[in-house]
Amino acid sequence: MRIFKNKTDLIAYVDTLKSDKKTIGFVPTMGALHEGHGSLISKGLSENDVMAVSIFVNPTQFDNQEDLVKYPRTLDSDVELLTTISEEKIIVYAPTVNDIYGDNVTSTSFFYDGLEHEMEGRFRHGHFDGVGTIVKRLFEIVRPDTAYFGEKDFQQLMIIKKLVEKHNIPVNIIGCKIHRAKDGLAMSSRNTRLKPEYREAAPFIFKTIKAAKEKFGTKSANYVTKWVTQQFAKHDLLDLEYFIIADIKTLKTVKRKSNKKAYRAFIAVYADDIRLIDNIALN
Ligand code: PAF
Question: Do 107 and 212 belong together in one domain?
Answer without folding.
Answer: no
